[in-house]
């Protein structure tokens, strides 16, 4: 049914034929939710989960109601983090109770879309559940695009000639991908159950729609798994590339040390100030020694340059 009701009018409204009540709550307290539990006869275990939140996506079946937990996600590109919210949905024969926690997406557009489809709305609360789940899964799309864009940027950073080591950024992205997987993977199990199993509260005509959402969820999971494997490969490539750069730096340092060792050795010999050194009295001794050191350093430089050490 469409319209607004006071909470005390809910039990009577639930008895009207071909109608149901849709109630939305945002982070209710235990006392606030107690009247809702009484009005709709919700199971105490599900009510406890709905108030405390921080639940994994799941589907729980009670005698006269279903309880579904969803994780919403939005990607904060500036911080490169995924911000998660939570939506819990209770559905009964004549009611839908939606509880939102955190930065969970608003469902105003979902309500408008459902009301614009009377052919689906006639399927009852199950149609609302499908619309909410479909909306949540659709919002995973921008998150996947944002993560994929940042992974490409990291991949370019790893193989850039200059720049900082992006290992911290890689680890952060890998953590976000892991949290995303934990939020989406259990949802696929719940959607598979809604499609394959028969529930009295889920109209037969709406079950096929859950299959479509399930397919979209599996696609997202596949992309997330690909991101995880790709980040692992990028991390390995980064560590390898760092080792290669360190080896190159060590070769350059060793080459310059070898070049500097020649004039150091010669200067050390002639700096010992012995009295009987025949070269000390030679007129051309000083320029000759400088020339020998210069030629020796030049030959070593050429050798290391041709060897790829410099």
CATH structural architecture of the largest domain: 2-Layer Sandwich
Shape: rod-shaped
Largest sheet: 5 strands, mixed
User: What low-confidence regions span 5 or more consecutive residues with pLDDT below 50?
Assistant: none
The helix content is: 55-70%
Tell me about this structure:
Helices cover 61% and strands 13% of the residues. It folds into 2 domains: 7-243, Beta Polymerase, domain 2 (2-Layer Sandwich), CATH 3.30.460; 250-307, Methane Monooxygenase Hydroxylase, Chain G, domain 1 (Up-down Bundle). α9 (204-270) packs antiparallel against α10. The radius of gyration is 35 Å and the shape is rod-shaped. A 5-stranded mixed β-sheet has the order 1-5-4-3-2, with helices on both faces. A hairpin with a 4-residue loop joins β2 and β3 (66-76). The chain has 310 residues and is α+β, with helices and mostly antiparallel strands. The protein is built from 10 helices and 5 strands. The longest helix is centred in the C-terminal third of the chain and has 67 residues, at 204-270. It has helices at 10-14, 30-40, 44-52, 108-115, 118-121, 125-138, 140-158, 167-196, 204-270, 285-307; strands at 21-26, 58-61, 66-76, 81-91, 95-102.
Task: Write a brief caption for the model.
The chain is α+β, with helices and mostly antiparallel strands and 310 residues long. Helix content is 61%, strand content 13%.
Primary descriptors:
Methane Monooxygenase Hydroxylase, Chain G, domain 1; 5-stranded mixed β-sheet; Beta Polymerase, domain 2; 10 helices; alpha+beta
Protein topology:
Elements: H1 10-14, E1 21-26, H2 30-40, H3 44-52, E2 58-61, E3 66-76, E4 81-91, E5 95-102, H4 108-115, H5 118-121, H6 125-138, H7 140-158, H8 167-196, H9 204-270, H10 285-307
Parallel strand pairs: 1-5
Antiparallel strand pairs: 2-3, 3-4, 4-5
């Amino acid at each position: 049914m469409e319209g607004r009701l006071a909470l005390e009018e809910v039990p009577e409204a639930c008895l009207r034929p071909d109608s149901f009540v849709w109630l939305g709550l945002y982070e209710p307290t235990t006392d606030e939710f107690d009247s809702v539990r009484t009005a709709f006869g919700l199971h105490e275990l599900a009510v406890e989960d709905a108030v405390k939140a921080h639940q994994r996506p799941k589907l729980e079946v009670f005698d006269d109601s279903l309880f579904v937990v969803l994780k919403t996600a939005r990607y904060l590109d500036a911080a490169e983090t995924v911000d998660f919210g939570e939506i819990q949905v209770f559905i009964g024969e004549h009611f839908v109770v939606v509880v939102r926690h955190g930065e969970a997406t608003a469902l105003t557009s979902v309500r408008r879309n459902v009301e614009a489809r009377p052919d689906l709305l006639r399927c009852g609360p199950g149609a609302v559940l499908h619309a909410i789940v479909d909306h949540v899964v659709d919002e995973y799309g921008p998150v996947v695009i944002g993560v994929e864009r940042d992974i490409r940027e990291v991949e370019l950073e790893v193989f850039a000639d200059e720049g900082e080591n992006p290992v911290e950024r890689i680890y952060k992205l890998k953590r976000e991908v892991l949290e995303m997987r934990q939020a989406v993977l259990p949802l696929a199990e719940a959607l598979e159950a809604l499609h394959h199993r028969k529930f009295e509260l889920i109209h037969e005509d709406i079950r096929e729609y859950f299959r479509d959402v399930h397919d979209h969820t599996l696609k997202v999971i596949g992309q997330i798994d690909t991101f995880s494997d790709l980040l692992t490969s990028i991390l390995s490539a980064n560590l390898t590339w760092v080792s290669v750069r360190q080896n190159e730096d060590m070769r350059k340092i060793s080459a310059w040390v070898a070049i500097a060792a020649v004039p150091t050795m010669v200067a050390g010999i002639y700096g010992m100030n012995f009295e009987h050194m025949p070269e000390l009295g030679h007129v051309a001794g000083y320029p000759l020694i400088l020339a020998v050191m210069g030629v020796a350093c030049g030959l070593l430089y050429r050798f290391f340059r041709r060897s790829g050490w410099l």
